[in-house]
Write a structure and sequence with these properties.
This protein has 547 residues and is an alpha/beta fold. The chain contains 26 helices and eight strands. The chain folds into three domains: 101 residues; 283 residues, no CATH class; 130 residues, no CATH class. Helix content is 51%, strand content 6%. A five-stranded parallel sheet has the order 2-3-4-1-5, sandwiched between helices. It has a three-stranded antiparallel sheet with strand order 6-8-7. Helix 15 links the parallel strand 3 and strand 4. The longest helix has 22 residues.
């Protein structure tokens, strides 16, 4: 008995305000002590590894990987889209007009990104010292020799031409390209220099040129826009500066899902950026440009759509899809428990004895295999074990409803750009059962789509399209249901169970599914993270109960 009392003295007692972590990695104190090094980080930090597009859903750990890279590497520059201040491209009348007549602006966007990244690489290479910046150009000029000297001189002239802008804000540098395009096109078409300064409506009204002529000349100018000089700069950098894998330089573009430019051009801009990242990675040794994309934005930009710069297959080698195993998540939780309790609490003594194995399994099954969800659920359980030294089964159950509600809100927010308010079409899941036959979901569950017009303001993208086509009798209910279930599967609301196989969710890698799978004889279940939100009945139902 004495030994037992002494053990209790040294056990950690939870306080309801304790937390094992914060939702955002950038806000985390003692980050280095909490970071779990995985194969994802090793691939990201390896400049010889082509994987440089971080892809993952909200809370999967993209920001943590980036922060770790910033803290471990000497030459890292993070550029936020808002810092680039290129929102003015959304309001550029000449670009808006050219888009309207079908001009392919992909090459313009690529030249723009090539220039931006060249400047950032120079900044990384020479640092902030003004004298080093000036001597950098002189050193390049002194090294010009051989048969290609003339072309290289043009490249250096280009650097000098923009030298005043090189060390300014990115917006100034990008604006130079827009001005060059505007003045060159005006001159080529015999128009006044300020002709394209007016509104798009005024341009269309006053231009007396054939649309085909404007389109042809604009694309010619764009294709010639500094391309030769930039090519020579890239060649100089490849041969004389970035030729050593031992000298590592990282540029990071994060927060591309923020409202940094209009939806009208954001996907083309990102797609062009990806092309340039791939090109520079093949050209420069020791240089890695990293893009961080949420899974939904990746689908909109690269995966689901063809952009005019090329096909998505080209970028597959660049993709670093972030995922976690159960073992890694348990290890992450253990690290955090030990850190915040000074090693008095670990995964081994977290749960009451008879609930240990089931407890960790119960939590993990509701996390979508994401660190942020694991941390969030654990924090909510801690609120329920105030003044106790371990998690009880009852505390986990009490914490679940608020966590489940949080997960549904998170899904709505994460996929709103793709589909609008997903929760508005999920009422048919309330009170549903696990392993429910897909064909048991009947047409009357979606009468609101057929009878009301409200979905126009609630849904977007593919979800809006299928609702609109179903409402207007262009899509049968069976096709509508397949399309809808496939969307709900992709976002993680439901999983699919084929005959004689286990229930699968989007993050299960052993099987792949398409919309044609979501019909008889398949069954579906709501993800366990949303059991509480939808008040799911855990009993498996027989098929004939729904017929």
């Amino acid at each position: 008995m004495k030994n037992k009392k002494n053990q209790n003295i040294y056990r950690y007692t939870f306080n309801k305000n304790d937390v094992i972590g914060l939702p955002a990695a950038e806000s985390e104190r003692d980050f280095n002590k909490l970071f779990l090094n995985t194969a994802n980080y090793e691939a990201l930090a390896d400049v010889t590894n082509p994987k440089c597009i971080l892809i993952g859903r909200t809370g999967i750990g993209k920001s943590a990987l980036i922060r770790q890279l910033e803290e471990n590497e000497a030459k890292v520059k993070r550029i936020s889209p808002e810092e680039m201040s290129i929102r003015f491209l959304s309001n550029s009348t000449i670009l808006d007009y050219l888009r309207g007549i079908g001009v392919n602006l992909n090459f313009f966007y690529k030249i723009l990104w090539k220039h931006v990244f060249i400047v950032e690489l120079i900044n990384l290479y020479v640092g902030d010292n003004e004298q080093k910046r000036m001597s950098f150009l002189e050193r390049i000029k002194e090294g010009l020799t051989g048969a290609q000297k003339g072309k290289k001189q043009k490249a250096v002239a280009y650097l000098q031409e923009f030298s005043n802008d090189f060390w300014e804000e990115t917006e100034i540098r990008i604006k130079s390209f827009e001005n060059t395009l505007e003045s060159s096109l005006s001159k080529e078409l015999g128009l006044q220099s300020n002709f394209f300064k007016s509104s798009v409506a005024e341009i269309k009204k006053n231009i007396d040129k054939e649309q085909s002529e404007v389109k042809y000349k604009a694309e010619q100018i764009i294709n010639q826009l500094q391309a030769e000089k930039l090519f020579e700069i890239i060649k100089i950098f490849k041969e004389d500066i970035f030729f050593d894998y031992q000298k590592r330089y990282f540029i990071i573009i994060d927060d591309l899902d923020t409202d940094w430019v209009s939806e009208q051009i954001v996907y083309d801009l990102i797609a062009a950026m990806v092309e340039v990242v791939q090109e520079y990675q093949n050209q420069f040794k020791g240089v890695k440009i990293i893009l961080s994309l949420r899974d939904n934005l990746y689908k909109l930009t690269i995966s689901d759509n063809e952009h005019r710069g090329g096909q998505r297959e080209k970028f597959a080698a660049l993709d670093l899809h972030i995922s976690w195993s159960e073992e890694e998540l348990i290890q992450l939780l253990d690290i955090r428990l030990k850190h915040f309790s000074s090693s008095k609490i670990s995964i081994d003594n977290l749960f009451e004895k008879e609930y240990k194995k089931d407890g960790i399994k119960y939590i993990l099954e509701r996390t979508y295999m994401r660190p942020r969800a694991l941390i969030s659920f654990t924090n909510k359980i801690i609120e329920q074990v105030d003044k106790k030294s371990h998690f009880t089964k009852n505390a986990v159950k009490i914490a679940e409803p608020s966590y489940s509600l949080e997960r549904m809100y998170a899904i709505d927010d994460e996929w709103s750009e793709n589909y609008g308010h997903l929760s508005k079409i999920c009422n048919f899941l309330n009170g549903t059962h696990i392993n429910r036959p897909i064909d048991s979901v009947l047409e009357n569950s979606f009468e609101f789509v057929y009878l009301k017009d409200g979905f126009q303001n609630q849904f977007k993208g593919k979800l809006f399209d299928i609702c609109n086509e179903y409402k207007n009798d262009k899509l049968s209910f069976e096709e509508f249901r397949k399309e809808l279930f496939f969307i709900l599967f992709l976002v993680g609301i439901i999983g699919i169970k084929m005959p004689d196989k286990s229930l699968c969710f989007y993050y299960d890698k052993l099987e792949t599914f398409g919309k044609e799978d979501f019909t008889t004889p398949a069954k579906f279940s709501v993800h366990k993270a949303l059991f509480s939100y939808f008040k799911v009945n855990n009993r498996e139902q027989e098929i004939d109960q729904f017929n």
